[in-house]
Design a protein that fits this description.
264 residues; alpha/beta; Nucleotidyltransferase, domain 5; 2 domains; five-stranded mixed β-sheet; 34% strand
């Protein structure tokens, strides 16, 4: 499968007359392929992007184009539809981001304030948890879990983590709403779950391209201490952590499981 990463945004450069230029940047996951083209703002549309994708691809169009920037998404999606290419919104475009940084592009995205989870989804309780890296995949990969996100690049062995290293996570007991919550999270596309100190403290879910959701708030000192340990363990596990949704603490059934890692 041929997967490209692409961005279309205002270039840091201008033409000789001082006019703003827009640049299309395309690469693959290891940057063995790179393509860039610029156009004046007046020509910055999906038809121009589609034509450039065809020029870059020749007769071998990609199967998927991954896009991290919300402002680029709709135009690249329209170009993809014209060419029969699936466009995937994802923050995980590290090769492209590295290239854009080298070209002095701004990568910081405007993020909205975190919104509360819909009341009809929230579970009954939650807790912090840990699993050894060597057990993480084995415990969940073979279970019949309706929503399971365990990509190869986030498996502990592929991150070079020792099998005995504790990987932190959060468990939500959803009760009767457990499956509904898991399905909603699947659509939201979780990326990372972070502890944010404040008044009150909170757990903030980073999801989609720039979405943020308040998963929990708390003022209890013991919970805050546990949250700090959670963040410390994330640093030790190269940012790897997990989110588990299950109806109760019986361990008999699970509704959703995600491997997560911060990606800005």
């Amino acid at each position: 499968m041929r997967i490209w990463q692409a961005d279309f945004y205002r270039s840091p450069q201008q033409d000789a007359s001082g006019q703003i230029l827009w640049e299309l940047s395309i690469c693959d996951a290891n940057r063995s392929f790179e393509y860039a083209a610029t156009c004046p703002q007046s020509a910055a549309n999906s038809s121009w992007i589609a034509a450039q994708i065809q020029l870059a691809a020749g007769e071998n169009l990609p199967n998927i184009i991954q896009v991290f920037r919300p402002q680029s998404l709709s135009l690249i999606q329209a170009a993809g539809r014209n060419l029969g290419i699936n466009v995937e919104a994802t923050r995980r475009t590290s090769a492209l981001k590295q290239w854009l940084q080298e070209k002095q592009y701004t990568l910081a995205l405007d993020k909205p304030p975190p919104a509360p989870l819909p009341e009809n989804l929230w579970g009954e309780e939650w807790r912090f948890a840990t699993l050894q890296a060597g057990e993480l995949v084995d415990v969940f990969a073979q279970r019949l879990i309706p929503v399971l996100y365990m990509p190869e690049f986030l498996k502990p062995i592929n991150l070079g983590l020792a099998s005995t290293l504790p990987v932190p996570g959060v468990v939500i007991y959803g009760g009767r709403r457990s499956l509904r919550l898991a399905k909603w999270l699947e659509e939201a596309q979780p990326v990372a779950l972070n502890y944010i100190a404040g008044a009150p403290d909170g757990l903030i879910l980073e999801a989609g391209l720039a979405d943020r959701w308040v998963v929990a708030t708390f003022t209890d000192a013991e919970v805050a201490a546990a949250a700090k340990v959670y963040e410390q363990r994330k640093q030790q596990s190269r940012g790897l952590h997990f989110l588990l949704v299950q109806p109760d603490d019986s361990g008999m059934t699970y509704s959703g499981f995600w491997l997560l890692q911060q990606e800005d």
